[in-house]
Amino acid sequence: MGIFSNFFSFTQELAIDLGTANTVIISNGEIIVNEPSVVALDRHTEKMIAVGDVAKQMYEKTNDKIRVIRPLRDGVIADFNAAEQMLRGLIKMVHQGRRLFSPSLRMVVGVPSGSTEVELRAVRDSAEHAGGRDVFLLFEPMAAAIGVGIDVTAPEGNMIVDIGGGTTEIAVISLGGIVSNNSIKMAGDDFTSDIQEYMSRQHNVRVSERMAERIKINVGAALTDLGDKAPDDYVVDGPNRITAMPMKVPVCYQEIAHCLEKSIARIEQAVINALESTPPELYADIVKNGIWLTGGGALLRGLDKRLTDKINIPFHVAEDPLLCVARGTGIALKNVDKFTFLKR
User: Fold this and answer.
1) Element holding 285 (H helix, E strand)
2) 157 alpha carbon, distance to own chain's centre
3) How many Å apart are CA 240 and CA 246, to the nearest integer?
């Protein structure tokens, strides 16, 4: 029966977290695709050469015949054609070796809560051009809350801080809807560019975006004292900014905590602003329940402790924070009557 259902199922349901840094696709509750949001195109024909991890390996290493693009910036589509091609390529991975023909697709796509109508239209159109027949859009903080395991339909206030690649989404959720939200264009990509700028200014070494990302992963921190959880120094190889001679520079987590200070302070202030506009009854619930951190930025060492100490409300890092939005869209896809979607 399983084989025949694969051949004769005319509609397939996909939950998609279309992120600035990574795109995750879930089908039947299973993560089928988890790839970087990167696509490589032929400069002359604009045809796709590679997508996902293969395209990311080409990033910052191409010749003049190939352009490698991250189609999303600040959480929204910056290059419509590249986004559509990337989405098509990633959806093909879902179907690879599974079916005799491509079924019609029913999709739920996570979108930033601060998206404009134009930005939402761009996501819808990209999803439809990539094969989507029914396209539902779900705000990312709501998806993240569902993915964490919060009962978002309860008459109780919960706050989510989702720090992605392009945006930080802060939302208070109650009774299945977003009561108040704050979306700022300050997130993981800004941490990466902060590190690039710091390495150039402080150590006179040029580092690529990918190397800055590796520094962030290995020694990224929000506190200058991590105690026994402190990571070892990370050695960076790169050219001297002035002489172009090769350099080896050991970088410690305290340096990175200092260089990320201003960006983290902006996220702190955005959380405080969101709390200021929260109704008192829901505020009391949030103090009792704590605030959940999701997204890649939640993995920054010591961030939960720093925010807890600053705001005097407990912050919890979700289990597997990178996948919360994707898991939440997957659950919402199975319960389309239960949640509030944005649908044309």
Assistant:
1) helix 280-289
2) 24
3) 6
Work out the pLDDT band at 163, boundaries 50, 70, 90.
very high
Residue 252 structure tokens? 């410690």
The average pLDDT across 50-57 equals 94
pTM confidence score: 0.89
- The whole-chain average pLDDT of the chain stands at 90
Distance CA 341, CA 174 (A): 15
Q: Is 341 exposed, middle or buried (0-12, 13-18, 19+ CB in 10 A)?
A: middle
Residue 326 CA to residue 342 CA, distance in Å, equals 17
pLDDT at 222: 97
Concatenate the DSSP letters of all residues of 256-280 into one string.
Answer: HHHHTHHHHHHHHHHHHHHHHTS-H
- Tell me how far CA of residue 48 lies from CA of 64, 96, 132, in angstroms: 15, 17, 19
Q: What is the tens place of the pLDDT at every residue in 178-198?
A: 998 899 999 999 999 999 999
**What is the spatial distance between Cα 327 and Cα 29, in angstroms, rounded to a whole number?**
8
The per-residue pLDDT for range 76-102, each reduced to its tens digit, is 888 989 999 999 899 888 876 555 456
Q: So what's the pLDDT on residue 76?
A: 84
Structure tokens at 44: 């002359």
Structure tokens at 273: 């602003």
What Cα–Cα distance (Å) separates residue 173 from each residue in 240, 257, 274, 314?
49, 31, 12, 17
Q: How many angstroms separate the first and last alpha carbons of the chain? A: 35
- pLDDT attached to residue 60: 84
| Residue (of 160, 155, 166) closest to 180 by Cα position | 160
**Cβ-based neighbour number of residue 230 at 10 Å:** 17
Rg, Å, the chain Cα set: 21
Q: Using alpha carbons, select from 14, 13, 16, 12 the residue that is nearest to residue 325.
A: 16
